[in-house]
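[User]
Protein folding is very new to me. Any chance you could explain this protein sequence and its structure tokens? I have pasted everything here:
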Amino acid sequence: MDGKISEFLKMQHDLAIEKGWIENRTPEHAPFSILWSIDELGEAIAIIKKKGAEGIMNNESVRSHFVEEVADTFMYLFDMMESYSITADEFTDAYVRKYEKNLGRNWHENDAMYENCMKKLIIFDMEGTVTHEDAALPWAARLLEILSTTGVKLALLSDLEDAKIREKLNGAGLSADTFDLIISSQHYPEAFAKASEVLEIKPGEAVVCTSSVVGVKLAKRAGMTAAAVPTHFGEAMYQKAGADFVTRDLINLPDLLAAE
């Protein structure tokens, strides 16, 4: 079966009528559909990170789950299209125009820009960048959600025992599964080296997010980019330690890295 966009739009419309959701098919509610589609896309990305291409291509159960999450993503996008009264013909015309425009673009320039600015590993020093005491920092959930859709590897570092780290994350409303690697260590050099080795990322392609001045110094010594969150000292202290970025709101991290 090869479905058409018009058929999928009608299926979502009929479902909305059946479930009593049709009154929410308005421009005001459209942003929610986009956000929910991003959430479903995050689920698909989680499967990619956990199971890899091998699982998706060769494991029937994994593949079925993955395709289902992709379908969920499109369902919410079709809901958004109806909310904005975007027809199948309008979408098709825009798609074809964009396709023809892409044919004439120089993608090699874009690839070079991406390779020059994109980091492949972000190591979070948990206390001060993800959590504070028993609570998640204001930016933590949203930032991790954004980063989890980029393909960047995420590592978490803490001097707590592994079980305590997971317990603390859970209590703060965060998931340990967001991270590709959790490191329980009291020694920065050892932890940075382990993250680089286990996740197979070169130090120069890694970023360390920390509220520790010592953490900044040792990240730089390890050849990594250092993003500091000033909590205990003034910004000047972190800059003197060699921080590449100093920010009081890590939600800005993707923009800072893109501008690097």
Q: What stands out?
A: The longest strand covers residues 153-158. Residues 107-117 have pLDDT under 50 and may be disordered.
